[in-house]
């Protein structure tokens, strides 16, 4: 009894909040939920980022949904990366069933079903509000990092961006930049060399190959107009609830380059656009990145460095970022150290390597006198997790094993008809789904190249035209019967004269004065 009282006192003290908070569930003591020990996370610390980790099938996605919908109900907009398609259910209210009733009876928390105002977005050919950005908006540094270019190649990209700015050439999509590459090594080579420096065809060929690689993953659908405005991610509905923006990514799981490109551009745009906010009572926006290993495993070092920098700094803009992955070590240490909320579901120990990883994972959590963390990590049930967060003063809370509440929204995928209905009711779909292809660098440079080729062709044709004209005069003259007859007569007389001079004429008399 003394031990359980100490347990309750420690956790109730550690997780007590004076301001607004979200509730995850009830603490577990020796495998049993304690109704009088609820785990609350203060809203004001939610911009300190977070991690949801655990083996497949342990409930990570449902935990993501619980946290995201709780934020929406508290007026915090959220952005969800839906790679498996099972986050769309956040748009519809859950249906009460015996399992939900039993879970909430155990934790002593009332259940109330709620739907969330939801916008569906797409990077690909899926249904949804189209997300795009222009090449110009990326800028030479970010664009070079996405393509994983070396310093020399990055310098060339910087020159081309500068040339495009100076000559008022809009770089909207990838075909614009490819055309600029062609122009820089062809008709415009001398012009650019004179004003900006030499550009080698070897380097431009490498850059072009990198762009084609990006295109092969569907990037041509992402680059272009109309550019998405990140301010549309921080909207609330008519009731003051945060809108859940769900990006449907089910068809780009095998295109990590496109996914990391999009994520980096989005985070960079949010960081650049949002003003400094300091410590707010609640975040302006929280972003959930499911299958986070797709970013970190496939990203170049330059891309990782950029991501780490943004993640360290973006919380001051009132933005929280949450990574969802199987193993905490999918996330780089530099990022992992920035995460205030950690929710760890069960891990599986099938091999010696797995057991070592579990012990290492346990060392990332606060030491607890009530739990053997490494053992607990393999014995947690579905819908249970280890939790540590930051309290209102920014101090890490004690480690708590938690029996999580059920989501208030639907667990599962919306039907295609339900998604279509949602998109049809969108207030921003018409704004972004209009196809725009205005005159840009591609059209302008194509015109320049065509003019140069036409001019060259005309210059090449001038000598030929002159020769043809001279030949034509002779041919026309030879075609005239009278001229031909006069010509023959003249030729005969000349021949006779020559023959006479040579003494081969028909006469036998010698002319005086010659011999």
Word description of this protein:
The protein is elongated and about 110 Å long. The C terminus is likely disordered. The protein is built from 18 helices and 12 strands. The chain folds into 2 domains: 340 residues, Rossmann fold; 98 residues. It is α/β, with parallel strands linked by helices. The relative contact order is 0.17. The N and C termini lie far apart (153 Å). A hairpin with a 2-residue loop joins β1 and β2. A 12-stranded mixed β-sheet has the order 2-1-12-11-10-3-9-8-4-7-5-6, sandwiched between helices. The longest helix has 39 residues.
In short:
The chain has 515 residues and is α/β, with parallel strands linked by helices.
Q: Which short descriptors sum up this protein?
A:
18 helices, Rossmann fold, alpha/beta
List the helices and strands and how they pair.
Blueprint: H1 2-15, E1 21-29, E2 32-42, E3 50-53, H2 60-73, E4 78-82, H3 98-107, E5 118-122, E6 129-130, H4 135-147, H5 151-166, H6 174-184, H7 189-195, H8 201-215, E7 244-248, H9 256-273, E8 285-289, H10 293-298, H11 301-314, E9 319-325, H12 333-336, E10 341-344, H13 352-362, H14 373-379, E11 384-388, E12 400-404, H15 416-424, H16 429-433, H17 441-479, H18 481-501
Parallel strand pairs: 3-9, 3-10, 4-7, 4-8, 5-6, 5-7, 8-9
Antiparallel strand pairs: 1-2, 1-12, 10-11, 11-12
Helix pairs in contact: 4-5, 5-8, 6-8, 6-17, 9-11, 13-14
